[in-house]
């Protein structure tokens, strides 16, 4: 009975509805007549494992993207503009994977919203790249605010799964950074450096969260 209790507690820590299978057995020789056994169905550990893999991939992408951008972002040119568009497009792909992985444990509605927001950001950045650095910073900043807020809410809903505090901090930081990018667009000589640097703290938070999800991914 203790192993069942431990399994059930691990699901309760996830903070999501727990699918259950109830077994009814006749207990001969007892006063109760029957014993109700409730077993939590699997789902949390597989979701955590999928998120862990996704977070590792997001860490690598963000670090590589930032490294390339720092090397070439002396001015806004077609290559730099394309790489700015690529970042939210990758976020779209990541949100699709996330939604599929977590469908069994939580509603993917916010992730679908994130897909829409990041898709619009990619289109907006493609248009803004032809208008100059201030326009790029405004679109980038607005996207960082909205996407960061969505990330924060999703992470709060998942916090009992484990490994979500880095995502909560990352979402909050994204909101603050987005506001600063939007303000920087009005500076006398706006630069893209800080917008590129935005990817590095996010990458680190993804790495920390992936490491901390290891226990949940193993079903412990």
Question: Would you give an account of this structure?
Answer:
By secondary structure, the protein is mostly helical. The chain has nine helices and two strands. Strands 1-2 form a two-stranded antiparallel sheet. Helix 5 (133-157) packs antiparallel against helix 6 (165-184). The longest helix has 29 residues, at 44-72. The protein is elongated.
User: Helical element count?
Assistant: 9
- Report the end-to-end length measured between terminal Cα atoms: 17 Å
Structure classification: mainly alpha
Helix share, percent:
55-70%
Strands, count: 2
What kind of sheet is the major sheet? 2 strands, antiparallel
Arithmetic mean of pLDDT: 83
Overview in brief:
With 220 residues, the protein is mostly helical. The protein is built from 9 helices and 2 strands; from the N terminus they run H-E-E-H-H-H-H-H-H-H-H. A two-stranded antiparallel ribbon has the order 1-2.
């Amino acid at each position: 009975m203790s192993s069942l209790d431990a399994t059930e507690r691990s699901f309760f820590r996830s903070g999501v509805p727990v699918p259950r299978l109830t077994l009814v057995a006749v207990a001969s020789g007892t006063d109760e007549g029957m014993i109700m056994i409730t077993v939590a169905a699997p789902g949390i550990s597989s979701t955590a494992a999928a998120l862990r893999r996704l977070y590792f991939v997001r860490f690598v992408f963000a670090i590589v993207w930032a490294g390339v951008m720092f090397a070439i972002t002396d001015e806004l040119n077609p290559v730099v503009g394309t790489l700015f568009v690529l970042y939210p497009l990758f976020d779209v792909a990541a949100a699709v994977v996330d939604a599929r992985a977590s469908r069994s444990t939580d509603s993917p509605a916010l992730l679908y919203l994130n897909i829409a927001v990041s898709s619009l950001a990619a289109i907006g950045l493609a248009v803004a790249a032809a208008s100059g650095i201030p326009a790029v910073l405004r679109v980038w900043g607005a996207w960082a605010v909205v996407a960061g807020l969505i990330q924060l809410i999703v992470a709060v809903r998942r916090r009992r799964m484990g490994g979500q505090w880095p995502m909560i901090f990352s979402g909050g930081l994204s909101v603050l950074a987005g506001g600063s990018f939007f303000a920087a667009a009005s500076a006398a000589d706006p630069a893209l450096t800080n917008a590129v640097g935005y990817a590095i703290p996010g990458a680190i938070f993804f790495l920390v969260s992936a490491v901390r999800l290891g226990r949940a991914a193993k079903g412990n």
